Amino acid sequence: MNDRLKNGALAGLLVLTLVLVGFSLRSPATPSVTPGAGSGAGAGAGSRAGTGAATGSVRPSPSATAPATSGPVVFLGDSVTEGTAASSPAKRWTALVAAELGQKEVNLGHARTGYLRKGPADSCGGDRCPSFEEAVADVVAAKPSTVVVTGGGNDTGLPAEDVAEAVSTTLASLRKGLPEARVYVVNPWWDLREVPDSLAALTATVRAAATTAGATFLDTKQPLVGQPDLMVEGGTNPNDAGHEALAEAVTAAIGQQPNA
């Protein structure tokens, strides 16, 4: 065989080898099947789902992960919560806050009560209205997703140790009975009377008990102190403008919380 024929044969063999190699590289490999993977339209979604599809996990809808707000908001407090001097139930601060939160209002406020102090004789039918501590069962029974506790001013003048125990028991019992609810505890409010020296210590007690119980303490300051235009005659309960001021203070404090 002369050199020309030899070179041509080698060239032809080289071309054939390259063709065969290229064909083998272009042939599709047998597809692997991930356990649990679907077919049809669902199978095509695998490349778009990223790591979620690789593990076979399903992302929950936003509604499934959002905080539960289907229950009402329950307000526990004294005459200011009850709305004794409001021109109508719709004007009291609790109704305004409930509307802002987008929840139904359940008002468990009773005049002249506190964490420890019960209402006067016959204030609730033939009985004395319950203290906050005694009203926990009613709060839990309402199945709220939010609880707002206000008051404590009526406990001034009672033994500080007894009040502290009642505050602690009230808030701990609320958290135990409603482990999934948001529990907000407002600092004790005062009115136009001279602010007692014991109010600061009571406020510190409420703050500490809220922290221990896993509730959220709301420092709303004192929206009514020194504000006669926000109070009815006599100076112990807010008028409609006062209820608006309290609602603004509470909603602002709630809005400052990281999980509001």
Helix and strand layout, with pairings?
Layout: H1 3-26, H2 41-44, H3 46-49, H4 51-55, H5 62-65, E1 73-76, H6 79-82, H7 93-101, E2 105-107, H8 136-141, E3 146-149, H9 160-177, E4 182-186, H10 198-213, E5 216-218, H11 240-255
Parallel strand pairs: 1-2, 1-3, 3-4, 4-5
Helix pairs in contact: 7-11, 9-10
Describe this structure in words.
With 260 residues, the chain is α/β, with parallel strands linked by helices. It has a single domain, classed as Rossmann fold (3-Layer(aba) Sandwich), CATH 3.40.50.1110. The protein contains eleven helices and five strands. A five-stranded parallel beta sheet has the order 2-1-3-4-5, with helices on both faces. α10 (198-213) links the parallel β4 and β5 (216-218). The longest helix has 24 residues, at 3-26. The protein is globular and about 40 Å long. It starts with a helix and ends in a 5-residue tail after the last helix. Residues 1-68 have low confidence and may be disordered.
Describe the global form: globular
- Assembly state of the chains shown: single chain
Encode the helix/strand succession as letters. Answer: HHHHHEHHEHEHEHEH
Number of strands: 5
Brief summary:
With 260 residues, the protein is α/β, with parallel strands linked by helices.
Keywords:
single chain, 5-stranded parallel beta sheet, globular, disordered N terminus
